[in-house]
Amino acid sequence: MKKFSPSQINLQVDFIKQGKSYVAYSPAFDLSTCGKTLKEAQSRFEEAVEIFIEETVENNCLEKL
Fold first, then answer.
1. Does the residue 58 lie in any domain?
2. CA 19 to centroid of chain Cα atoms
3. Does some domain include residue 52?
4. Which domain range does residue 21 map to?
């Protein structure tokens, strides 16, 4: 299977500062994560999207998404 890269899609992601943390949230996938810095939140979100897409494809659910 070809490796998926989050940079291959155009996805709205909102970054919100909450206290001392940053939250990354995508309404399209209803997916979120956080980090102590904006860069960490971005990196963790890219990883979460990659896992989400790979699992969706692996479970043959891409059309439902």
1. no
2. 21
3. no
4. 10-36
40 token code pair? 């960490």
The whole-model pTM stands at 0.80
Annotate the chain with DSSP letters as a single string.
Answer: -PPP-GGGS----EEEEETTEEEEEETTTTEEEEESSHHHHHHHHHHHHHHHHHHHHHTT-TTT-
Question: Which of 38, 24, 23, 29 shows the shortest CA–CA distance to 9?
Answer: 29
Query: What is the spatial distance between Cα 24 and Cα 40, in angstroms, rounded to a whole number?
Result: 10
Structure tokens at 42: 């971005």
Residue 14 falls inside a structural domain: yes
Q: pLDDT tens, 19-59?
A: 999 999 999 999 999 999 999 999 999 999 989 988 988 88
Rounded CA separation 9/54 (Å): 13
